[in-house]
């Protein structure tokens, strides 16, 4: 299955608890951290929820 790399570009400070939890679910918790996950609809939905704080590298 294909994988995607996700880089955190925004800070979770002053964000809602569910957005912080979504970042942790994606394996991100610090600025510029990179996580490589399988490309599934569930992961795509999580990325869409925090798209203003992450960068996706196909």
From TrEMBL:
UniProt signal peptide: none
GO annotations of cellular component type: cytosolic large ribosomal subunit
Keywords: Ribonucleoprotein, Ribosomal protein
CDD domains: Ribosomal_L30
Gene Ontology MF annotations: structural constituent of ribosome
Keyword Zinc included in the entry's annotation: no
UniProt GO BP: translation
Lyase found in the keyword field: no
Domain annotation Large ribosomal subunit protein uL30-like ferredoxin-like fold: ranges: 4-54
Complex and partners: Part of the 50S ribosomal subunit.
Family: Belongs to the universal ribosomal protein uL30 family.
UniProt protein name: Large ribosomal subunit protein uL30
Organism: Sphingomonas metalli
């Amino acid at each position: 299955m294909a994988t995607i790399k996700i880089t955190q570009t925004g800070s979770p400070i002053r964000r809602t608890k569910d957005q912080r939890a979504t970042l942790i679910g994606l394996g991100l918790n610090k600025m510029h951290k990179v996580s490589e996950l399988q490309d599934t609809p569930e992961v795509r939905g999580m990325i869409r929820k925090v798209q203003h704080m992450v960068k996706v590298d196909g």
